[in-house]
Amino acid sequence: MTPTLVPHHPRTASAPPVDPAARARDWAEIQERMLVPLYEAAYEHLEVGAGSRVLGLGCGSGLALLMAAARGARVTGVDTDRSRIALARERLTPDPELSGERDGAPEIARLVVGEPGDAAGPGRSRFSMITVFQPIGCTAGDSEGLVPALWAVAPLAERGSPVVLAGWGPPERCATSAVLRVASRLTERLRAGGGWRPTLRDDLEDVATRAGLKPDGSGRVACPFGYADLESAVRGLLSTGLFDAAVRATDQAQVEKEVTEALHPHVRADGTVWMPNVFRYLIARTP
After folding, report:
1. Are residues 227 and 30 in contact, defined by beta-carbon separation less than 8 angstroms?
2. Which domain covers residue 162, as residue numbers?
3. Which of 17, 84, 121, 261 is most buried (CB neighbours < 10 A)?
């Protein structure tokens, strides 16, 4: 649940309202690909392929689902963001062959705007895998809504099915942490949280345990963030939602300015931006 925030100084009139469709497009075109190594590592670890039935919670614009479908899996994605789901549909149903049943073939992709419990579909088999690739353990309270979501979908999966949780690695291994501290600095005067916090070693295990899941292995993956220029970097990072509290506390223009300044140490001679990061994934099992 997003806390109610009170700005500590007035917003500037020059800050335009955020366009959900534009932000979703920034996520899909700029930022989402940064996590491809994470998706690949989890799918390789669990040998996702033909016969896999994957449920993606918070599936966003669907790149992870597309990669699972390319391996032969049937996929279902659930997200509350209509703009991101619209982009996922463009990716996963580009032609009639992937738009639903054809000549009696099973539906390959199903995308739902709604809550986790809405993932169940009439006549569908139980899932064999659940993924939550949106990294947690970076902002205060970012896992609070995940525990009840996992409780809701665990009964939709076969017993002992893997659940993949993802999180940021140690701050000293993530160059982007220095940029994310902007969010913490801009929200530190607020009584409510929402800003960046250092990742804790057992963040993922804590969520799994509270959700009634049994941890069963983990891994670390290098996921460098690389951008064509500063403008792309700012747009990509703001599309993650990690700076939303900072925008509410100040304004869009102020956040963009401070994020740009924080990115300068990561600009290379050719103008590109490069930040090495390590992400962690946990495999847990449904009861």
Report:
1. yes
2. 20-171+197-226+276-285
3. 84
Domain tally, the chain: 1
Q: Tokens representing 37?
A: 């190594």
- DSSP secondary structure code for residue 157 in this structure: B
**Percentage with pLDDT > 70 across the chain:** 84
Reference 116, options 165, 155, 68; nearest CA is 155
**Beta-bridge partner residues of 113:** 79
Q: Does residue 268 form part of some domain? A: no
263 lies in some domain? no
How many residues are given for the chain? Answer: 287
With beta carbons less than 8 A apart as the criterion, state whether 249 and 5 touch: yes
Pick the more confident residue, 244 or 131: 131
Q: Can you give the CATH number for the domain in which 48 is found?
A: 3.40.50.150
**Contact 19/258 with Cβ under 8 angstroms?**
no
Q: How far is CA 100 from each of CA 41, 95, 115, 207, rounded to the nearest angstrom?
A: 28, 10, 22, 34
Please state the rounded mean pLDDT for residues 7-25: 61
User: In the predicted model, what is the mean pLDDT of residues 262-273?
Assistant: 98
249 has pLDDT over 80: yes
Residue 127 to residue 109: CA distance in whole angstroms: 13
Which tokens sit at 103? 């000549």
The Cα–Cα gap between 239 and 266 comes to 19
